[in-house]
Amino acid sequence: MLRLLIASPYPALRAGLRVLLDAATTVVGEAEAVDACLEAARTARPDVILFDLALEGEAFPDGVWQLRQQSPASAVLALSDSNSDPRVLAALQA
Asked: Cα(90)–Cα(21) distance, rounded to whole angstroms?
């Protein structure tokens, strides 16, 4: 079964995604900040990291890139509520 890590600053979004995806995946963790996501990725070793770009900010402007460097075996699926946000292009480049 696919091992999934859900990373979003929004508790309701994390809970909803867990409910929707729990039957088809094994949710191995949740994170509410980039640093927590990096730690969870290191310890849980998920197959897929569902990463909300809303986590990125001044402290971690390149969260997807950091995840790709730290967990190259994990696929990163970035979520965004905008298609014109510069973080979307940066995530695709990472």
From this structure: 26
Instruction: Tell me, letter by letter, the H, E, C secondary structure of 38-65.
Output: HHHHHHHCCCEEEEEHHHCCCCCCCHHH
Chain center to CA of 72: 13
Residue 2 and residue 77: Cα distance in Å, rounded? 14
- pLDDT, tens only, 6-60: 999 999 999 999 999 988 999 999 999 988 999 999 999 999 999 998 887 655 5
Sorted by sequence, the CB contacts under 8 Å of residue 89 that are 6+ apart come out as none
Alpha carbon distance 35, 2 (integer Å): 23
- Residue 45 structure tokens: 């070793």
